[in-house]
Amino acid sequence: MKGSLTKFKQLFIDNKFVLGLLIFLLVALDIYVLTKISFIFDPLMVILKTVAAPIVLAGISYYLFNPVIDWLEKKKWKRGWAIALLYVVIIGLIILLFSFVIPAVKDQIVSLFKTFPGYWDQITQKFNEFSQSSLFDQLKDKLSTNMSDIMKTLSEKGTSVLNSAITSVGSIVGTVTEVVLAIVTTPLVLFYLLKDGKKLPDFLLKMLPVNGRAH
Q1: 18, part of any domain
Q2: Cα(205)–Cα(201) distance, integer angstroms
Q3: Could you give the CA distance from residue 133 to residue 126 in angstroms, rounded to a whole number?
Q4: Number of structural domains found in the chain
Q5: Is the residue at 124 inside a domain?
Q6: Dihedral sign computed on CA atoms, order 22, 23, 25, 29
Q7: pTM of the full predicted structure?
Q8: How far is 119 from 125, CA to CA, in rounded Å?
Q9: 123-176 pLDDT, tens per residue?
Q10: Residue 128 placed within a domain
């Protein structure tokens, strides 16, 4: 028995090439299995994507705004009131920004609606000119001879476009939902980080085993 273990150790454990090959095969097997059961992790990935954005944004904002809150706190402001003041200033800046952006966008939209009839008249005129040309007659003859093939192609393309559109709409809705959730939850997470962020390292440290804590 001992001799068998020694041979096994010599062949596999002490042989770096064989050991590396075994590790590679195990990793490849893990990757293959994960690709086959990836659907199990889809809900988890959705949750992580939803939660990650607010946490990352709040973390970045915390390191940007925490010095401001500390400075106000040194000026005898209570930390909660300092955070409230910061939020009021940020909201005011956002409103000010939109007060400049929205009128500009509105003017562009109004201008588009005003010029659209002119563009439509030009398109109609060009189409009428084309419909009276000999090229249009030739094209109409070709279309009439290959109408069945054209309709089949259009049907296939239409189905493909519809499926792509549905997929795109679902993706857009999901993205919009994630953005809205990030916009709503980021200020909340940031508030608690600014309020009690300094206690977070101690809180996380308490969650570690005693042996794993730095002395």
Answers
A1: no
A2: 6
A3: 11
A4: 1
A5: no
A6: positive
A7: 0.53
A8: 10
A9: 888 777 766 776 666 666 666 656 666 666 767 777 777 777 777 777 787 778
A10: no
